[in-house]
Amino acid sequence: MKKNSKRNNNLAVSSIDLNSAGIEKGKNESQNNFVELLPLEVTLKIFSQLDVRSLCRASVTCRSWNHAIRNNDSLWRPHCLTLRAVCQREIDDDVESGYSWRVILLRNYQKSKVKCDWLSGRYSNICSSVSLPEKIMCPMDADTWGEILEAELER
Questions:
Q1: What Pfam families does this protein map onto (predicted)?
Q2: In a domain, 142, yes or no
Q3: Structural domain total, the chain
Q4: What is the DSSP letter of 110?
Q5: Residue 50, in any domain of the structure
Q6: What's the CA gap between 89 and 132, in Å, rounded?
Q7: In sequence order, what are the residues at sequence separation of 6 or more whose Cβ sits closer than 8 angstroms to the Cβ of residue 95?
Q8: Count of other CB atoms within 10 angstroms of residue 139
Q9: Domain of 57: which CATH number?
Q10: What is the DSSP secondary structure assignment for residue 85, as one 8-state letter?
């Protein structure tokens, strides 16, 4: 029993020491912001470990995070290349048009989800347009619809 209470006391002291050290050092808010403290390469390595949703959420955390994430194509490119498996033509057209990787992802993310569902046969049993889930649909060009139609005809 004494051993456990001694361990708890040590934890309490450690957390108090850490908290008081944080208060002394934390007078300036930017001191707690790793984006401003670490070299850009390290910051980008950290952000590169995030999935698309987490990356988008991190970009709205604060201005410095937004600036680091929004303005760095190396963070968005891998996610676009993942989408390219479904939207190859669309991604390649956007690259040729000179869009940034972030904008390419914004333009094609929802489309890739819908297209993947269509190509996998998720909507094959739908009898009319009224039955389509309106929330997840998005505009697609004629070539994309052509790909979907070909997949449906092969089924």
A1: F-box-like
A2: no
A3: 1
A4: H
A5: yes
A6: 25
A7: 104
A8: 8
A9: 1.20.1280.50
A10: T
